[in-house]
Amino acid sequence: MKILRRKLRRDLRRQRAQFLAIAVTIFLGVTLFGASYDAYRNLEASYEQAFVELRFANLTTTGGDTKAIAAAARKADGVAHLATRVQADIPFQVDDIKLTGRIVGMPTVEQPSVNRVEVEQGSYLPPADSGGVLVEQHMAENFELDAGDEITVLDAEGASRQLRSVGTAASPEYFWPAPSRQQVFAAPDDFGVLFVPEPTARELAGLATANQVVIYYDGGHENQALTDRLTRAADSAGADDVLTQAQQPSNSALQQDVSGFEELAILFPMLFLSAAALATAVLMRRLVAAQRPTIGVLRAEGFSRAQLLRHYVSFGLISGGLGGVLGALAGVLLAGAVTSAYTSELSIPLTVTELRPATIAVGIAFGVITGLIAAGLPARAASRVAPAEAMRSFAPSAGGSISLLERLLPPARRLPARWRMTIRSLGRNRRRTLSTATGVVLALILILVSWGMVDTMQILIDRQFEEIEREDAELSYQDGVSRSELDAVRDTAGVERAEPALNAAVTLAANGKRYQTALVALREDTQMHGFLLEGGGTTSLPENALLAGEALQGELGISEGDRVTVTAPEADLDPKLPVQGFLAEPLGTLAYSTLATAQRGSGGRVGKGNSALVRFESGVDRDEMRRRLSALPGVSAYEDSQVIRATVDEYLGLFYAFVGVMLLFGGAMAFALIFNSMSSSISERRVELATLRASGAPHMMLARLVTVENLITVLLGIVPGLIAGYAAAALFMASFSNDQFSFALEMRPSTLVLSALAIVLVALISQIPGVRALRRINVAAVIRERAS
Amino acid sequence: MAESVIHLRGVRKTYGEGAAEVAAVRGVDLDVEAGSFVVLLGPSGSGKTTLLNLIGGIEPATSGEIEVDGVDLAELDEEGRTRFRRESVGFIFQFFNLIPTLTGAENVELIAELAGEEDRAAEMVERVGLGERGRHFPSQLSGGEQQRIAVARALASRPRLLLGDEPTGALDLETGRNVLSLLREVGAELGQTVLLVTHNAVIARMADRVLQVRDGLIVSDEANATPLAAEQLEW
Lengths: 788, 235
Known about the structure:
Oligomer: heterodimer
Strand content of chain A: 15-25%
Helix content of chain A: 40-55%
Strand content of chain B: 25-35%
Distance between the termini of chain B: 34 Å
Strand order of the largest sheet of chain B: 6-7-8-3-9-10
Strand order of the largest sheet of chain A: 3-4-9-6-8-7
Number of strands of chain A: 22
Mean pLDDT of chain B: 91
């Protein structure tokens, strides 16, 4: 019907600000859905393609009889390629910086059949050049190493060897340069990887044979049965560690990020679309109420209920369609940008950005369905209005009642009449009050989930580097730290305290399960490490027992007091040690014992400290300390804990940017919802407000009353919003926790206060257009309309 | 001769501009004595409501002089007109325009508070004969009771001028007569000037003075030497 279409256009034009607010909210929701979902899919595709092209191992075994493991794998159905190689951690020195380096053996001339590298600069390892190496891209970037530059390494005998870079390479094992599952974050100055000719690797590591087998399955596809079989074979061949592709440190850390995108792709857009649906419903109800006489006329003139239903549903359809289409397009653009920024930040050599019609269709459908559902009920009500009823010049007067507050607090009945009016207005249109309060709840969920992530990260990182790891630096000694070497550290200017420590790769086993981690042995009275128990409180290192990260309970199925077998490459600790307590440590799942326990358990073979933990005097120049301490005899690597912390902060940089965007989106959503609610509130009471103006009520007084009423509505949503937001944040953070990271929600009380204040601020800002509209009410015109 | 509480000279009110300009009031001169009961009579669109709004300070005139209760309205800005309405004018509307979330008495109290006359609210509710019924919400009151509350509300600020725009337009005959009677009574009792706008010529018979409005002009101005009591009116 042309005439209804014209009416629709004009109605939309008259309330363009309100419809625009709805369209914007839907747009934000659909954009977020498209951007996060497609970014998630793009990243998965990018990784998948990179993994296939570079044949990223499905299974990696370390230690044991590698020949036997390789032989078993060769016989197994489903294994496409395998390779054996040496991987070892040895000291590196670049200029005057000493760091823990990792060498990975590779064949020359040709790439290995598994775990290939993407040569970014220079050339692949040439034949007959035992000193030519490829530098992993993060190390190359950090130390500005180009082809031809030299790197000093210490071999197994402690002798210096010069290696020369032939180029830089990206490896799927180090897209995120994590040394191990227990050490996901390493400062760029503290860790680096070199791909070296296999014979050179064996020489440097002092190994006669390969110590790793890397296995690639058919098509690179996961195959649990094959993994189980090969794991059993590796176990029986004495392997120290077996890692699947999903457990591989770099991949595991990155998958956390990617799965975060997946969760965001559903949770956050749903919040926006719910808010948009609420805003649409509020606006549509108001529109239908205001147009009752028009509806009556149309019905009396012969328009069918179905025609009117379609007409009013069209409002939601247009807002939802507009927001949905634009949001879907913006989502596509943003997904590409997010994917590129992400892969570029992590130096992933392949970026897959695909246009996914299904995502676009779902995004548009989300928008349209949101609009349809929200407009559907008011439209249905409109179509059911009887002509005679609707054509009355005004809707039947709503019944008033004493407010709940006045019932509960009788003195409130003595408030000035204007404030009683304000309080009672809250119950006047309960749906609108409920919609606004619900919108506040949704906005707070969005804000607290985002802000909760930041708080959790910051609090846990503070805890990790202030309460748990209390040293300023760790010095590594390849052959163990002697008393004289420790004294030399203590005598160095700027050193306040130094303690010996042992950091050994171990496998913990119990109940038929194994867990590869590190045993950190410290002095019984150590001041370099705080032990925070999972249930709260602190403890100290026990004699003849272990403390371990809380995730170990799930990994090994153990509880406090249970004994675990500790196996180290060098020796087994005997007897089995009981775990005396579980620790709440944000990063990694480590085992701790006293140095004496480690020494006793291994008969002295394990337990000699191999590092020195150092605390500085206050105010020292950390760069100078690095230079002084790195130069001490026997020091093979130096780690500055503040640099590690800076690396963590840098890693969180992208994350903070994302949270900032979410906070803006949350603010925009709250604004759109409160703005629409406010507009409806004023529009609904135009005549009353005009009457009060005619009776001499000052504009500012009315503005104050309406503002307070809206603020009370917002406050009604704040308490449940804070509770719901906290719960959602806790749920969200829990989904990020595993044995590498433990992210139980931590939220500062100030976050709750500031979030609530932010919502109040947004509410105040969103009042401005309504308050201005209040000033513009044409008292004479409103009265004249009524009189006529 | 009693003092003039309303003084209009050459008052014009136009809406729109250029070709779309509409003159609602086209040069009205008028003086109304204090305490009189005046009816502005005219058909729809004659400009009578606009004239009432100009006198009540709801909107400014396009040109001309308007002095009400000694106040030159042309000199007042929006805030000044608001204060003027609060202090000097009481309005009664066709559809009562009560706040549905306040009881009848509270509607009166609201305006009394505005004028700093809080104590007067209960008295006014009593005066219009509602007493206990004033505790009910508008939706629980009849049309006549609602309009009585509207009258009490208009009186709450002790205005010199009571302006009614079709105050019986939404009421049945009996109720309408009661409201008119009330207006006449309280107007006389409190010494207020009452100006009613209506298209109902019968109501004019109870006025002291009847002004006929057509096309934005006062086309006749007649004194009524023998006004009828409201109870005598029939329509």
